[in-house]
Amino acid sequence: METAINVTRLGFDPYLGWTAFYVICAIMALVWLVYAFNRGQAPLSRFLAIALGLAALSNPSIVEEERDPLPSVAAVILDRSESMAFGTRQDAAERAYDAVRAQLNADPSLEVRILESDPTADGTNLYTALQGMMADVSRDRVAGAILVTDGQIHDLPTPPSEAGDLGPIHGLIVGDGERGDRRVEIVEGPSFGIVGEMAEFIIRADDPSGGEIPVDVSVNGGEKRTVFLIAGRETPLELEIERRGENVIVLEAPPGSEELTLANNRTAASLSGVRDRLRVLLITGRPNAAGRVWRDLLKSDPQVDLVHFTILRPPLKTDVTPIEELALIQFPTEELFEGKLGEFNLIIFDQYERRGVITQSYLANMARYVEEGGALIIAAGEPFASPASLARTPLAAVLPAVPDGEVNIGHFVPQLTDEGRRHTVTAPLDGREWGGWIRAIGAQAKAGDVLMTTPDGGPLLVLDRVGDGRVGLLLSDQIWLWARGYEGGGPFSELIRRMVHWMMKEPELEERQLSLIANGDTANVRLRTLSDSAPDLTLETPEGEILSLDWTPREPGLFEASAPIHQLGLYRAEAGGLEAVALNGPANPKEYADLQSSTQVMTPVADATRGGVFRIGADGDRLPDIRRVGRSGSAAGSNWLGLRERGAYVVRASSSTPLLPGIAAAAALMIFLLVAWRREGR
After folding, report:
1. Do domains 71-179+596-647 and 183-275 have the same CATH topology?
2. How far is C-alpha 288 from the geometric centre of its chain's CA atoms?
3. Rounded to two decimals, what is the model's pTM?
4. Which of 142, 375, 437, 637 is 20 to 30 A from 623 in CA distance terms?
5. CATH homologous superfamily of 513-584
6. Cα within 13 Å of Cα(329), Cβ side
């Protein structure tokens, strides 16, 4: 700190305040102008009288002050963002940062404030950091700021002129400005959509070489398809929303001819799928108590559109009752099983047997419907064990079990299998007390997962995936006993709902699922399986590095693993053919939007604040000279940058001596007025 200095200056302190003083000045000036315009005889005397009166009102004085000079404040900020990790940028920046600090600290008239940016932030926010550093500094003390960065700053003010009170702002740019990078991004996309409908995204790929870029697109880790994008051009892309809940869309581009990193060759977006309404076709082979349970439960759900038909008699049965009096409407077999079959999300057969109403060709259509992604539930009764069974039709190709012709009658309590205790549909039901059933259809399981059995091991509930669709087979017509509370009842509604949601491919009910959560500095992987052991697990980082992780068993069928992570971007876990992806940070991190070292981003702000932008070389050794400059004018040249000398101070002591004491001012005023009157009286 410099020693105190004494300063003498002329000061004014109007008796009536500055506002009243200015008003009086304006009035007196107007009066004098009117007087002069009317050819008054003493304009000079009048002017001197007015001037003397106003001078007296301004209360002039000689002020003597003892001042302590205040140092000017300069800021030096080092960019620690992720984009600085490429090449030699960080090393060059640190060398330049140390050299600038050492030079500024040697100047006793400067207060140097230093800061390193947050490396985990989404984007390089150096201007916000500068504002925070200077928040307690009066603007008449700001000497300027020096930012050591690769030039990719994401929070610069718009328009640049708004940064003027913190200037001059200088940039020292590290990195090779000629080196390019390929990147892909999702420019725009919806945050939610209706399951089964198309969602439109706007995507873009950039490459310094230009041309056409192949980009692989996948949804929820499924099969990839390749689209070709023109470099630098925004392209629309339509994708089907596959399921309710989170849908992860992933874009991947192969390495380009120039690459700073592969982390921005892959990006993702999350879209929430909302199911409009669930359209269900329920066909009951004959009136029965279980059919009413299915109907009442489905109709109670406002999200379900239920179409229910009960076949009261076969068309060839001898009956004198006219058909128009027996049926409310004619069974629309052709319309349902030819024209509108694909409009249903789920089809349920309840105790149906072949009676000629639904032909073999229609049942073949239904088998194709399942293989192409449809869902089918068969609640089997005695007809399933008869020669008229659905297992003796083309539908047998998608059934997970075949009847053995036996109908087992007798009290029993359904049992969960080992798979049933792990399967997401039935695992929450384990440990509860259930009432008994009385009838089960004998069958042999040939595919799928047997979740419930009779006490002697016969299959009771079997779920299976067929092609892109799913099938559920309940080998009893006794679930209505649970609904009626027989022997305490059982979780009939929960079982049916969970089974239906599994059919609809709800993510949380997948029995074999791999989930990945990347948050901050840790990636957590969770595997649910029906097996006792877990397959090998690998984790791919945004840079393409493959990590092998070890599982930790938590409970039967549930395994977890974790790994430390240090990068923003997309992570991919793979185990036993299952795949999961997760974003650490935002979908399109600002840090990876443009990794090229650039002077262009900072130039507008530097120009607006009279600062400069300089490339300092790959080793950070081509630093410009640092000079102190005046309060105005340019603060940068071709090879130098300037920090302003503000000359701020604080007053420690002050005294004042009036220049126009009241008596002297009044006497002088009277003299000038007498002179004016004498001249006017001649």
Report:
1. no
2. 51
3. 0.63
4. 142
5. Immunoglobulins (2.60.40.10)
6. 7
